[in-house]
Amino acid sequence: MFDTAETFYRDCLVLPAERAVTLCGKLDDVKAMTNAGKQPVVTSQRAYVMMSHSRWIVTCPFVDPKMGRSCGGAQCASITDPRFFCLTCHNAAINGAFVMVEWPDEAMRAEIEAILTPVEDITCRNWWPYESIAELREQAARWIEMHKALSVVNYPRSKRKK
Ligand SMILES: [Zn+2]
Question: Minimal CA–CA distance to 48: which of 33, 61, 29, 62?
Answer without folding.
Answer: 61
